[in-house]
């Protein structure tokens, strides 16, 4: 999540990492003011090998596995993950994980 925020935020952009208790869970966010993601593509982001820009001349590296792996780990712990984004305005990735007690 942090790697994506760094990769898709231009120089001198901002990235926030926050975490807090939320009931019996920990809510973690990684947010940025980077390039953002069109809303119609957000549901596909957790698919294995999916990349928003899959063209041969794409600017950003990666295999399209990062968010798929994150979601798999979150699911294994019984948590939730979701993304809020708007093209040109940035992205916020939310993780809700059961807190260890």
Describe this structure in words.
17% of the residues lie in helices and 32% in strands. It has helices spanning 2-7, 66-76; strands at residues 15-22, 25-32, 80-86, 90-98. The protein has a single domain (2-98), classed as 2-Layer Sandwich (Heat Shock Protein 90), CATH 3.30.565.10. It is built from two helices and four strands, in the order αββαββ. β1 and β2 (25-32) form a beta hairpin. The chain is an alpha+beta fold and 101 residues long. The chain has a four-stranded antiparallel beta sheet.
Write the SSE topology.
Blueprint: H1 2-7, E1 15-22, E2 25-32, H2 66-76, E3 80-86, E4 90-98
Antiparallel strand pairs: 1-2, 2-4, 3-4
- What pattern of helices and strands is seen along the backbone? HEEHEE
Report the sheet-strand fraction.
25-35%
Q: What's the story with the biggest beta sheet? A: 4 strands, antiparallel
Averaged pLDDT, please?
85
Helical percent range? Answer: 10-25%
* CATH architectural designation: 2-Layer Sandwich
Could you say which overall geometry the principal axes of the C-alpha atoms support?
globular
CATH superfamily: Histidine kinase-like ATPase, C-terminal domain
Strand order of the largest sheet: 1-2-4-3
State the end-to-end CA separation: 25 Å
Category from helices, strands and their pairing: alpha+beta
CATH class type = Alpha Beta
CATH topology: Heat Shock Protein 90
* Total number of strands: 4
> How many structural domains in the coordinates?
1
Low-confidence stretches: 54-58
Number of helical regions: 2
